[in-house]
Design goal:
It comes from Streptomyces chumphonensis. This is Alpha/beta fold hydrolase. With about 280 residues, this protein is an alpha/beta fold. Helices cover about 45% and strands about 20% of the residues. It has eleven helices and eight strands. The protein is globular.
Length: about 280
């Protein structure tokens, strides 16, 4: 999961609910849309806080930035029915969010699982969007090793409570993941976020990571500017695979040095600079 470097919102940002035709979603909003509006979708086990370090730099660059908790993620409520979290439903949520922002075109970004959701939204209806950025998100199902981890997590969630699953996951963490250098409030937040996430959401979106087909040819046919951003290493989708996806999409591929699967949290200023440059370049 992404681990935000801090939790304090930058000056001018606010936490609120974005009311849409498909319900209200918890969001963090920052900045004025001088150059446009960006909608940021988090990944598997993630939340809007994964983008907290991007908000200030992107707002300073001239963008209104809206980071969202999808349905069943952290502070957005969701039902216990797994069918509510299938990819078509999540795509419809994104389209409703873009409509509610009333921005005249939104720069859409999805991190990891969020990239698959963003892609599904664009393939359903690209008209609300100015561009699509896939951040550490691949062409199809995730890597075999990550698939194994997802299946183990799904099995645990079907038989155990969220608290027990959390404790077991932490017990399996390598020593370097124990939290050295992590602010205490961030460590507490990670557990709080986990406990607030709907188990059905995790199980159903895990199925997306396990079974999503390669839809790159479909996406390549959509007349929308695209951008692939990755770290220098990635455990979920190998970087050479992501580079090949960018080539197939005729999209620029930006590598954030010193980052792995979460450049948004690991190298936020460099990531924000790359995003702002792309969005500025493709603005009408």
């Amino acid at each position: 999961m992404s681990k935000p470097p801090f939790l304090t919102l930058p000056s001018g940002a606010r936490a609120h609910r974005l009311v849409t035709a498909r319900g209200a979603f918890a969001v963090h909003t920052c900045g004025r849309p001088r150059l446009g509006t960006a909608l940021l979708l988090p990944g598997f086990t993630g939340s809007k806080e994964d983008f907290v370090a991007l908000l200030g730099p992107l707002a300073d660059a001239g963008f209104r930035v809206v980071a969202v908790d999808g349905r069943g993620q952290y502070e957005t409520e969701g039902p216990a029915d797994e069918a509510a979290y299938r990819l078509p439903e999540l795509a419809r949520d994104v389209l409703a969010q873009a409509e509610a922002l009333d921005a005249g075109g939104v720069h859409l970004l999805g991190h990891s699982l969020g990239g698959l959701v963003a892609r599904a939204a664009v393939l359903r209806d690209a008209s609300p969007f100015r561009s699509l950025t896939l951040l550490s998100s691949g062409p199809a199902a995730t890597s075999p090793l990550q698939q194994e981890r997802v299946r183990l997590l799904q099995d645990a969630l079907r038989t155990l409570g969220m608290a027990e699953v959390w404790e077991r996951m932490r017990a399996l963490d390598p020593p370097e993941a124990a939290g050295a250098g992590t602010p205490r409030e961030v460590t507490a937040f990670l557990r709080e976020r986990w406990m607030a996430t709907a188990p059905a959401q995790l199980i159903a979106t895990g199925d997306i990571l396990l079974g999503e087909p390669d839809r790159v040819p479909e996406l390549a046919a959509v007349p929308l500017p695209r951008h692939v951003v990755t770290g220098a290493l990635d455990y979920a989708w190998p970087v050479p695979l992501l580079a090949d996806m960018a080539r197939r999409l005729s999209a620029p591929h930006t590598v954030i040095e010193g980052a792995e699967h979460s450049p948004n949290a690991e190298r936020p200023r460099e990531t924000a600079a790359a995003l702002a440059a792309f969005w500025t370049d493709v603005n009408p």
